[in-house]
Amino acid sequence: MAQVTAAARSLIWISGASAGIGAALAAAAPYPDARVIDLSRRGGGTAEHFKADLSDPADWERVEKHFEAELAGYDGDRVVFIHNAGTITPIGPAHAVDGEAYTSAVLLNSVAPQVLGRAFLTATAGLRCERHLVMLSSGAAKTPYAGWSSYTAGKAAVEQWVRTVGAEQPPNGCRVIAVAPGVVDTAMQSEIRSTDPDSFPSVARFQDLKQSGALATPDSAATGIWSLLNRPLPNGSCIDLRHL
C-alpha cells in the first residue's frame, strides 16, 4: 500500500521509464512531491522500479495487482499513469519477419495498453483525487508505413481505445488522453535509421530528419506531454504535440 505523506501527494506510473521519452518524463515530473514508479524490464532511470515485461501477459496480472495494492486507501492529490512502452521491431513486411518477435510486438503495442489501461481505471475507480491516464501514440496511428505493421496497428488501436474509454468516463472520472510526441531523438529512431530500405522503404525520410536537425529532444517531448495535464482537453482526446 502506498505510504502517502506530505512529501508524496502524487503517485505516478510511467511504463518504459528507463530510457528515452519515458526517462525524460520521469525526470521532469512537475510535482515536487511525486513518487514516480517505472514499469519496465530493466529499470535504471531516476524512478522507483517495478520490474515487468509488458509483452508478457503473466506480467500484466502482476502490474494489475501492483496498482491495486498501491492504491488501496490512497488519499493523495493525484494519480497518473503514462503508458509509454512500445517497440518498433521487428521492422519488415509482415509476411517476412520473425513470427515470435512479431507476436511479442503485437502484445506490447496493441494489447498491453488496453489491458493495463483497464487495470488502472479499475484500481482508481473509487478515488476522488485527480486521475490521469495518458497513452503515448504516434503519427503512425494515422499514416501507414510499409514495414511497421505491428507498430502502426498498435498505435491506431491505442487511439481508438482512448476515444472510446474517454467517452465512457463520468464528469468526475479519470481523464484519458493519447499523445503523439512527434519524431523524437531516441534509441528507437537510431534503430529506424539503420534499417535496410528493403525492410523499411521510408528509411531515407527519417535519416533526413536527423541530418536536418528536425528531431525533437526527449526533454522537450516530456515537457509537452506533462503540459497536457493542465489543459482543458475533452476526455478521449488524441493530441499531436506538433499541432498544439
Please, could you describe this protein's structure?
The chain has 244 residues and is of the alpha/beta class. It has one domain: Rossmann fold, CATH 3.40.50. 39% of the residues lie in helices and 16% in strands. It is built from 7 helices and 7 strands. It has a 7-stranded parallel beta sheet, sandwiched between helices. Helix 1 crosses helix 7 and helix 2 runs parallel beside helix 3. The N and C termini lie far apart (38 Å). 42% of the residues are buried. The N terminus is likely disordered. It is found in: Cytoplasm. Its main location: cytoplasm. InterPro entries: Biopterin_syn/organic_redct, NAD(P)-bd_dom_sf, Sc_DH/Rdtase_CS, SDR_fam.
Q: Helix and strand layout, with pairings?
A:
Elements: E1 10-15, H1 20-27, E2 34-40, E3 48-51, H2 57-71, E4 78-83, H3 99-124, E5 130-136, H4 149-168, E6 175-180, H5 187-193, H6 203-211, H7 218-227, E7 238-240
Parallel strand pairs: 1-2, 1-4, 2-3, 4-5, 5-6, 6-7
Helix pairs in contact: 1-7, 2-3, 3-4
GO biological process, one term: tetrahydrobiopterin biosynthetic process
GO molecular function: sepiapterin reductase (NADP+) activity
Subcellular location: Cytoplasm
